[in-house]
Amino acid sequence: MASLETTVDGLKLANPFIIGSGPPGTNVKVIKRAFKEGWGAVIAKTVSLDASKVVNVGPRYAKLMAGDGKEVIGWENIELISDRKFEIWLDEFKEAKDACPDGVLIASIMEEYNKDAWCEIVGRCQDAGVDGFELNFSCPHGLPERKMGAAMGQDPAILEEVCGWVMGAAKIPVWAKMTPNVTHIEEPTAAALRAGCHGVSAINTIRSVMGVNLDTLRPEPTVEGYTTPGGYSSKAVKPIALRMVMEIAQLIKKDFPGRSLSGLGGIETGADAAQFILLGSDTVQVCTGVMKFGYGMVTELCEGLLAFMEGKGFETLADFKGLSLPYFTTHAELVRMQLARKAEEAAAKERAGMVKSDAEWDGDDFVKQSDALARKASS
Ligand SMILES: Cc1cc2nc3c(=O)[nH]c(=O)nc-3n(C[C@H](O)[C@H](O)[C@H](O)COP(=O)(O)O)c2cc1C
Questions:
Q1: CA of 231 to the centre of ligand 1 (A)
Q2: With a 6 A CB cut-off, is 181 part of the ligand 1 pocket?
Q3: Is there an atom of ligand 1 within 6 Å of 132 CB?
Q4: How far apart are CA 114 and CA 99, in angstroms?
Q5: What is the CATH number of the domain that holds 88?
Q6: Which one of 62, 152, 226, 263 is CB 3.0 to 4.6 Å from 210, fit for a cystine?
Q7: pLDDT by residue (tens digit) across 39-61?
Q8: pLDDT at residue 151, rounded to an integer
Q9: How many angstroms separate the alpha carbon of residue 287 from the centre of ligand 1?
Q10: Nearest CA, atom 29, ligand 1
Q11: Enclosing domain of residue 367
């Protein structure tokens, strides 16, 4: 029988479905709820040492609806990292692990460009009992103004240095979360993996402007009449996330074998998850999906993924991880392969028109049959 169990970087997960950092992991109540519903792991909302610098606004979300106006397909947020005190978080990490000792709890952390701050946040979170770290180098709004988040993730040299500090202090697995707001995601990914991170997560939100209200002429979400570009997530970003996951998986396969990849961006079904795994993900995360459908969606995610595996005869996630990766190539190669196939088809058609025994000669087609057997030479 097919199984969803997996071990990644030594972390034992009952299934590959992880709560992505954000509102669904924003305090101990919801973290415990996620474990109770059966999520394979939880990545808590990103924390920093000094939450007093984090001031959120409202409204801070904007939704893009599909044509029928009923389905949310895109979601923009201008939410910052957690505005809750670090000391409270440490107590809640302990409480979550005491209540759910088998629940895999990953702390998402972010700090300014300061070695002592990164070492302190790593040390104190791991003393509180978390099982792993995700380094948030990817929030596209608010934090870059303090040279944090995406501002760090867009600079491979700084990213490599910071990952090096973290790897010097961490005794548990570390994943670096990548921003999609770069031209070549392989460059910051390689920097994080060169520094020794166990794995990477991709993608965070895509820098966006949700729209302009045609009555007020103000961009959305409007706060006191103004807005700021935010981060785009949900179903609409899945094709972009899949492309980046594919590029990272190719890099890992070539230069960093054995490192892990946690894929996310628009995952809502077991079939979505199967596609991320086929393109090289070890685990998959869901953030906006939980905000749309609730914690109980994990049951359907597991059932959907198991149904795919059973339909294809896969028993474990390893049986199909990365299986679709070899089927990417350059456009020039697509052209070459298509011309070759067309030439082969034409030759096959020509061969089919040739008589194979004298009994096939026919009065009506005699000239055509003679021509098919002939090769022309110039005189
Ligand atoms: C409201 C909201 C808040 C988020 N906050 C964080 C955060 O604190 N840290 C982080 O690493 N990612 C954060 N994210 C990004 C998500 O973890 C995820 O990378 C992104 O939304 C794409 O996945 P999804 O389509 O499943 O949401 C947030 C996303 C949303 C929608």
A1: 8
A2: no
A3: no
A4: 34
A5: 3.20.20.70
A6: 62
A7: 999 999 999 999 999 999 999 99
A8: 85
A9: 6
A10: 22
A11: 331-373
> What tens digit of pLDDT does each residue of 332-351 get?
999 999 999 999 999 998 88
Instruction: Show Cβ contacts of residue 22 under 8 Å, excluding neighbours closer than 6 positions.
Output: 45, 79, 287, 288, 291
Measured in residues, the chain has a length of 379
Residue 378 lies in a domain: no
pLDDT of residue 31: 98
Q: Which two tokens stand for residue 329?
A: 């190539």
What is the pTM for the complete model shown? 0.94
> What average pLDDT does range 192-203 have in this prediction?
98
CA of 233 to the centre of ligand 1 (A): 7
- Annotation says 125 is catalytic: no
Q: Cβ(75) to ligand 1 under 6 A?
A: yes
pLDDT tens digits, residue range 237-282? 999 999 999 999 999 999 999 999 999 999 999 999 999 999 999 9
Which residue in 139, 163, 197, 287 is the catalytic one? 139
C-alpha 176 to ligand 1 mean position (Å): 14
- Residue 1 in domain: no
Q: Which residues pair with 263 in a beta bridge?
A: 202, 284
